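Deviations from the work plan: none for this task. Representative record:
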Amino acid sequence: MTYGFLGLGIMGTAMASNLVRAGFDVVVWNRTETACSPLCELGARNAPTAADVVDAADITFVMLSDDAALRELWYAEGGVLAGVSAGRGVVNMSTIGDDTSTELSAAVVQLGGRYLEAPVTGTKKPAEDGLLVILGAGDRHLYDAALPAFEVMGKRSVYLGEVGNGARMKLVINMIMGNVMLALAEGMALAERSDLDPGLLLDLVAEGAVANPMFSIKGPMLIDRSYPPSFPLKHMKKDLKLALQLAEKQGQVLPQTAEANETFKRAELAGRGDEDFSAVFEALQ
Amino acid sequence: MTYGFLGLGIMGTAMASNLVRAGFDVVVWNRTETACSPLCELGARNAPTAADVVDAADITFVMLSDDAALRELWYAEGGVLAGVSAGRGVVNMSTIGDDTSTELSAAVVQLGGRYLEAPVTGTKKPAEDGLLVILGAGDRHLYDAALPAFEVMGKRSVYLGEVGNGARMKLVINMIMGNVMLALAEGMALAERSDLDPGLLLDLVAEGAVANPMFSIKGPMLIDRSYPPSFPLKHMKKDLKLALQLAEKQGQVLPQTAEANETFKRAELAGRGDEDFSAVFEALQ
Amino acid sequence: MTYGFLGLGIMGTAMASNLVRAGFDVVVWNRTETACSPLCELGARNAPTAADVVDAADITFVMLSDDAALRELWYAEGGVLAGVSAGRGVVNMSTIGDDTSTELSAAVVQLGGRYLEAPVTGTKKPAEDGLLVILGAGDRHLYDAALPAFEVMGKRSVYLGEVGNGARMKLVINMIMGNVMLALAEGMALAERSDLDPGLLLDLVAEGAVANPMFSIKGPMLIDRSYPPSFPLKHMKKDLKLALQLAEKQGQVLPQTAEANETFKRAELAGRGDEDFSAVFEALQ
Amino acid sequence: MTYGFLGLGIMGTAMASNLVRAGFDVVVWNRTETACSPLCELGARNAPTAADVVDAADITFVMLSDDAALRELWYAEGGVLAGVSAGRGVVNMSTIGDDTSTELSAAVVQLGGRYLEAPVTGTKKPAEDGLLVILGAGDRHLYDAALPAFEVMGKRSVYLGEVGNGARMKLVINMIMGNVMLALAEGMALAERSDLDPGLLLDLVAEGAVANPMFSIKGPMLIDRSYPPSFPLKHMKKDLKLALQLAEKQGQVLPQTAEANETFKRAELAGRGDEDFSAVFEALQ
């Protein structure tokens, strides 16, 4: 089996490296060629175009940042579709809208290829440690074929049915995370305003029923009012918007999420979009 | 040392039992006398009035359900104040408003007694297992004197300064919990409406950054739409209201909490007040 | 000059009738032919297809219900575009999204035609009485040419610049209206719940600084809890959603509108979509 | 008949002046004596204490700014209660909480006096022009006796039943006004952000179903971003808080008002409390 990997940003590099280290035969391509070097040193081969990767590999993984980048990669000269032929598998691990994913899937299938949507939860550290959670949806056959690779990149993978379900599940998970972050932010703000020790509040919450890793990581950032990005606020803002759009389509009231969307928007408009999403705390000051 | 215990409901019985089992000398009183029996069998002594308990004990713990019950117990004939004299300590572990606590404190101090506010986080199970978290505030000397008993009843205790700080810290903690519960409820509702498996959503969240014990316990209740109360919704509703009042006093915007208060209110008005607070899920249907 | 009119629903019939009664030469077409009869009796001529109308008229007015209906009419065989040629003017008075309007405009212009977007504020009664307010945007020349007809159909018309500005202004106006309606609904609900006479509240508000025609018309509907539609709730819901989308694009926080969107959504999900938008009152019960 | 008037601020001076000009026999008192001069020049008599006024007059009107000022005036040496005896009437026209009003009423009645709560809607200009709306509640006999004076001070007066109903009706009216103000503010903000002319938006709204005097007065203040106070934002903020407290007591969801309370709070915390309540617009920037 030969595996392709397109998109060697922070996430993609970590994931592809794990594949190479696990002994898989990996062909890579990135828009900027230099990104390949570390991977090539590990043993990956470089191909001149994305199409060459897709053509050379049984299964090609794709990890880009947003819908627009995906569309460009798909339809460009030397892009993904130019390499698809009967039996080729494309596994899109990027986080994108369910509609875009459906469109990209149709284009691959029309050329005789197979498509699997497989967004992940987890950021840089879990990607490096092979501890991602992978949300597969689409071609079941391709999912099964990709499992050995998923087992290297993640600690868990699930199959969710038709294309779009992975994107939607990811949205719901991120929306919960955004709301929970804001819950902590409001608690910390009220504590500080009431002359209660915010560090002690974090300690006490960590002993209780809602203790969770995110509070331990982000809490001190709120105390320091410094937000080095691991998940940029503008991305959380976008996911909240998409979750609300999904709720419009499905007919679900989401009063908390609608409010959170406005508060995150306030933080983004105040210039916090590239900071960590915990910077929503600043919108409460 | 002799310890008193007033209020033998679910929480009080569990806490007092732990004291007796640990070998402490405990005198108890409850409004309805039958509540004493199991404790007396363990070795506690019963006193005819609350005043007798306070008079007989070096430190008396109080665990009642709300401000009104506390006030009645304080000022009644044979009540707490009737037993207070120089050096007697009263440790109020009930969850009440900061203003009420300040008033009860002043009344005790005026008679030469000592007062400590010490609300706890944790419900029935942690109370039985001696795993409460105790938020002490008020008389520092009394706090130190009560520590051996706190170590039996809880896994952690902290001293927060002046009377009121314990009540306020408790409010902030519960307010975070209420908001986080609603975050899960909205995520589960959107998942179900989008034909995503809510059980799988729970599994996936449990693998991620906001994994927390409450989601594991309450999540299945949302799937079953059955909410046996461990913390009744009407109490969470009251705490959200009190947190908003605190925010008014201190000058803090809390848009998420203001919204949550309305959604919990909606659930309470729909008759869910005595169910578990996870029944806020029903207000999203 | 010959004028065309496409779309003879409640609004279109009223508007076209005013043109005919004012002595204009009018050619009409409607998807269901019977809608023409009353107009034909007044003196309008009927054409077999929309394309025939556009071809026969100097300026053709279009009044349909939504984006989908417009798109169908535009691109269908015998549709609008099939009739457009150099110099033909199309004035789209329907309320649609700014993006759709821009797309429809481009298609007309490419064929040498002129396009004006001209949504109106006002419902059935003002349409019949020629008292609409017309929000023109797009081809300035066409706006000037259409003015005599606008003066028959409306009490005021304005020119707002590039295509999309009419649609956007309409959205802002409707969004204010939706929020103001909900303000009344909450006041009426609180009054009733507090045993204050809601009819008297209406009287008192009518004497004060926010007295407005809508309160006089909708207020009694809330008291009767009966909502015969003059502007269906589902349309207001859609406009709130579109206003929030515009706010996302432009970067504007709209916390009140975000909340109103959820409350109107709640009413729509409860089956009130076809009732008047004042039925949002039911979502507060 | 002799009438008393206590409290000669902006509102009280305007109201008392109208009584004097209408030929009523008026005795006045103000905390700072200088406030009497203009009234005395018109023909009013000055008394050394509030108690002297109440004792000398058949009916005494009171117009102070808040609950605290009222309580002080009531219970002080030489205060209202010191002057009350059998048959004396006190008409409290201040805007205060329903609970405070009930307490002040009981104190008057216990001394054999009569009490009427009579808050007004309208600010300085309507007060000067005798165009207030008066919301009477409490002693019906006193209401009837005060009617000739009400007819001089206001354009309309109503009798609402038991003490507290006037305060509550006033709250509901102001809460509607606050929400409607925010509706305009959001519309104006979105228009400006979308490069639509905000002055034209005001014109168009003024032609439509929600045209109202407040929009005409406040709209230009938003365009100028200058908010000379006619009703200070901090007072509107307080009324929204009180309306939400009433809703808690009565069991009514008020999602829009809860949100508005947070947005007005945001404006107040940003230092806009003494500006006009239309300055809530700044919280959207």
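The first strand of chain D starts at residue 2 and ends at 6.
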